[in-house]
Amino acid sequence: MEFEKDNSFFTGRLKSIGFAFKGAYKLITTEHSVMVQSTIAVLLIIAGFIFEISRLEWMMQLLAFGLVLGIESLNTAVEKLADFIHPEFHNKIGFIKDIAAGAVLFSAMAAIAIGLLIYVPKFM
Fold first, then answer.
1. Residues of the chain with pLDDT under 70
2. Largest CB tally within 10 Å, which of 19, 27, 62, 99?
3. Global pTM?
4. 75 Cβ partners below 8 Å, 6+ apart?
5. Inter-residue contact 72 to 34 (CB < 8 Å)
6. Residue 89 in marked binding region
7. What are the extents of the domains in the chain?
C-alpha cells in the first residue's frame, strides 16, 4: 500500500490529529514507563483538586507532565527506531539510546522538583 498525502488543509489536519491520538494510545497501552508516568500524572491531578492548588501551580504541574511524557515519547521513538535499524547490540546505538534516556531523566528531575515545590508546603 502506497502512502498518499492529503493536501487538503482541513482533512489533512484531522488525519494528523487521528495519528497523534493513535500514537498516544499505543504509548499508554504498551510502554510501562509511560503507564507509570501517566498514573503519577492522574494522581497528582487528583491531589491538585484536593489541595486546591493555585492557577500558577496548575500551569507548572501540567507543563511538567507534558514535558516528561513528551520527552519519554521521543525517547521511546528513538529506541524503537534504533532497534529496528540495528537489532543486535551496538556501542553507538547504545550510546544514542543512553542519551535519549538521559533526556527523560532531566525532565523527570525537573518535574519532581516542581511537584515538591507545590506539595511539600501543603503538608507543613
1. 1-6
2. 27
3. 0.84
4. 100, 101, 103, 104
5. yes
6. yes
7. 36-123
